[in-house]
Amino acid sequence: MLRFKEMLTQLTDYAHGMRIMYVEDEVLIRENTALLLKTIFSDVVCVSQMVNKPCKHIRKESMKS
Amino acid sequence: MQAYTQGVYEIVITDILMPEMNGVAMIKAMKDITPTQCFIVTSACEDSNYLLELINLSISQFLLKPIQTEQIIQVLHIAAKNIYNERKVKEFTEQLKQDLIHQTTLLEQYKEVVDLSSIVIKTDIHGNIVYANDQFTQTSGYTYDEILAHGHKLLRHHEMSSEVYEELWRTISSKKTWNGIIKNLKKDGSHYITDTTIKPILDEFNEIIDFISIGNDVTELYDLNEEIWQTQHEMLLILGGVAETRSNETANHVRRVAKYAQLLGELYGLSEEEVRLLYSASPMHDIGKIGIPDAILLKPGKLDADEYHIMKTHSQIGYDILKNSTRPLLQAASVIAKEHHEKWDGSGYPNALVGEDIHIYGRVVALTDVFDALSCERVYKKAWPMEKIIEFILAEKGKHFDPHLVELFMQHLDKFIAIAAQYKD
Questions:
Q1: What is the full DSSP assignment across B164-211?
Q2: B118-217 has which CATH code?
Q3: pLDDT by residue (tens digit) across B249-300?
Q4: Which CATH number fits domain B2-82: 2.40.50.100, 3.10.20.600, 3.10.50.40, 3.40.50.2300?
Q5: What is the pTM of this model?
Q6: Mutant choice from B13, B20, B31 vs A, greatest count of A C-beta within 10 A
Q7: Which of A45, B44, B90, B261 is buried most, with the most CB atoms less than 10 Å from its CB?
């Protein structure tokens, strides 16, 4: 089993040039997870589907790098 | 979905229960757009129906909420590594494909050049022809189907010895490349000559799968060479004949000596090239007689000691005439001119050489010249009966003549007599 740091380093290498989409149901997308993804992947698009809001459209692209 | 359709994503992380669009439905929709899309699902929902659907949708990873950073890193590591490896495999495959296209393009051009310039034949491991190019059909006159149906035997020329083909087959069967000159038969009965290279093609286990033969048509070159050689030979026969005529010998004397020398050289085991040199150079054995005064050369009676001494110089004179040439043929002629009066026991002239110190050309011509002189009639003498000639030659075995050559001569006497009959004066 790889140690966490080693795994993170490898992941960063693998993720170079990759884009990731993170879709969640929370009002504010989990900031910690989003920030973590952003440190690893070249491009992160976070999409939040808000609770109790009947809108059919994507409400927020919280972060883009 | 709008955001998804606007970009290309290697990984999508999503939940299942979401207000706007259910995660499972969203994954289905995205899979319709990108069938190979990688999904990581994070959810607190443990509904087995959803989970079954996610398995059927072949999602990459599932994480039960609440999730820890280590967990998300671990599944991302697996997913990203897979994508990275797939991408590398794809790149490598693409590179291989490009290399293959490049190599194939080059090979096709190389093949085109070879096909334009050479005769190419492919043979299976049993020696059956399985391919022949256009150059072959044009040169040989046989169609592709004819050569495939009847094989190499169609091309076998009677002048090619079976030893050559046996040696060829031995070489290529032992996985070595064979190179040599092959005289082939055309459909119209004429011939063509190829400088041929045959290479066994081996598989990855070093086993022969077939043989490729590439031949360059050198017919013109060989025929021209033969023409030059024959012209040279005729010129030397004429020149040798002129010298002999001065001393009352007939022009056919040199033709017979050449034929006897050729036969004896073959019997002795000289190479084809040496036999050829001996055959063409031997008519010049008495060329030095052009330097001997008529008074001595044409004297009807026996020569006195001084005259005989002068007469003997013809071998050195002949050598001096020819010695400065670097051509193998004239070098051979110079050796013959000088040494054809040397004797095996060392009592000959001009240098009293002994045994094998006398060049084989000299030893051969010494015997054949004497045989012809004894067996033919001259204005000053009768031809000797064959029994007497045999008796004389046997008596001189190991004295005048090389004993081994005498044995060969006696073993094949009928052939020498046949030559004498064919070229009699």
A1: HHHHHHHHHHTT--EEEEEEEE-TTS-EEEEEEEEEEEE-TTS-EEEE
A2: 3.30.450.20
A3: 777 888 999 999 999 999 999 999 999 999 999 999 999 998 999 888 888 7
A4: 3.40.50.2300
A5: 0.58
A6: B20
A7: B261
Q: Which CATH superfamily is domain B222-422 in?
A: Hypothetical protein af1432 (1.10.3210.10)
| Predicted confidence band of residue B378 (pLDDT cuts 50, 70, 90) | confident
Return the residue of B nearest to A11 by Cα. Answer: B77
Residue B310 in tokens = 């002068």
Which residues of chain B lie closer than 8 angstroms to A4, CB-CB?
A: 70, 73
| Nearest residue on chain B to A54, alpha-carbon basis | B20
The ipTM, to two decimals, is: 0.77
At residue A54's C-alpha, the angle toward residues A51 and A56, to 5°, is 105
Question: Scanning the structure block, which residue is given the tokens 């085109």?
Answer: B112
Which position has the token pair 């006497």?
B413
Mean pLDDT across the stretch A5-19? 90
Average pLDDT, chain B: 92
